[in-house]
Amino acid sequence: AKFVTRRGFCLWPRPSSQDGRHCRFLVVQHWYKQWEAYVQGGDKDSGTFPGCINNADLFEDQVNWHLRKGLVEGEDYVLLPAAAWHYLVDWYGLEHGQPPIERKVVELPSVQKVEVYPVELLLARHSDMDTTHTAQFSRTDSVDLVLRTAREQFLVSPQEETRLWIKNAEGSFERLCNTRVTVLDAALKTGQVVIMETRNKDGTWPSAQPQAVNTALEEDENFQGQPGICGLTNLGNTCFMN
């Protein structure tokens, strides 16, 4: 792929193992093509001047700035390395109010890719599961980052102990036992509800019956297995019931 500068052409690399932690920026295809024509033509007074970068066509709304579904690289957008993006913004500007569309280059099993569509989770508190807050995460982010994001979102004090649950499509709940795993390994998907539970001041958890709490806590402390999701066999049928 080529990146055009004001002085000509230079090659910019696809993601590689050396820059796997770097990011890429999305630019709408038609703006980029018009800019290429403007630079290649060399006529500063031509009608090909692209103006500021305007990625409006890539968004499905201009409130939450969610990307449209099904966008295709090379048809709807191009991916630029950070240095190229910052040059273009310095030269031409970005449409007022629009956020830059920055995406991670991530290492997935057997493939490295730009994560154009991160995982969007719906974060909620156990005390108000009907009110959710959307947060985006890379598939390579840890579940611990999800927990920390939820704690920040819901203004939990550092002294309070919390844990996470996921709500399955059929309405059941499973606890995320180990926060060291990645979002990918925990099989978290866009649109999934992740619930943060805060321990009561008396040491109990709102989701557990009093007689089940000690068993659950003991298992938490002794957990040595592979990171993943725990079932609810020790919590009875009253999880998240008022």
From TrEMBL:
GO terms for molecular function: cysteine-type deubiquitinase activity. SUPFAM superfamilies: DUSP-like (SSF143791). It is an enzyme of class 3 (hydrolase). The keyword Protease applies. Coiled coil: none annotated. Pfam families: DUSP (PF06337), Ubiquitin_3 (PF14836). GO terms for biological process: proteolysis. Keywords: Hydrolase, Protease, Thiol protease, Ubl conjugation pathway. It comes from the Eukaryota. It catalyses: Thiol-dependent hydrolysis of ester, thioester, amide, peptide and isopeptide bonds formed by the C-terminal Gly of ubiquitin (a 76-residue protein attached to proteins as an intracellular targeting signal). SMART domains: DUSP (SM00695). The keyword Lipoprotein does not apply. Its EC number is 3.4.19.12. Residues 1-106 form the DUSP domain. Gene3D superfamilies: DUSP-like (3.30.2230.10), Phosphatidylinositol 3-kinase Catalytic Subunit, Chain A, domain 1 (3.10.20.90). InterPro entries: DUSP-like_sf (IPR035927), Pept_C19_DUSP (IPR006615), Ub_USP-typ (IPR028135). This is ubiquitinyl hydrolase 1. It comes from Neovison vison. The lineage of its organism: Eukaryota, Metazoa, Chordata, Craniata, Vertebrata.
